[in-house]
């Protein structure tokens, strides 16, 4: 059997179109989950979303044109902890384009066996982000797609101010436009040692007073995503290399962010 028949996905010679794939994925605990991946060629974006077994909804958007990644997390309340409703968070980071295949390439993929349970080929480990500001209107300025994606989070959209200098100004905008729209966290939330002598803000896991501010964190693991293209050699291209499938990866994210009250950190335990 020829090599190219063994790959999970076939890279077909079709014109790029918008694509939606529903993937059965096995997580590191052995549980099977479903991921939905949507490639939008006209907007140059990819969205991967799934519902975790604990009820937390994850939606990851990558805007390739504007180099913005937006991770949206919807956390349901735990009634036994006295919580109510749900909380939507969104984290903006500079996108590493080499870590996710582009929408035009994604749109050419065809799933060979839709019922198969997928396991990522490579573990990319952890990526840790310590946010330093509320994004405000900067989300829409950085990326209209990310602005829409994060809109349900309202004032719970976070980023690192250090990333602002990495994003090139969009047409008709100045670099300072981004900085003018963000609101930095309080100084004592950014460093344990401040000039005014105030103590640094404690992690929420170490804070017993539900009314005090603290540093919350949340962890997200994307168990399977297309992170590169595979190349094969064979008869279809006269012995030369040709694109014949995808490489798949697993990555976990840990986000740290400031909250004005510990009870606003639904994942503090």
TrEMBL record:
Q: Which residues form the Out at first protein BRICHOS-like domain?
A: 20-167
Query: So which residues are the signal peptide here?
Result: none
Q: Which InterPro entries match?
A: Oaf, Oaf_C, OAF_N
- Which ranges carry the Out at first C-terminal domain? 204-267
Similarity remark = Belongs to the OAF family.
Q: What is this protein called?
A: Out at first protein
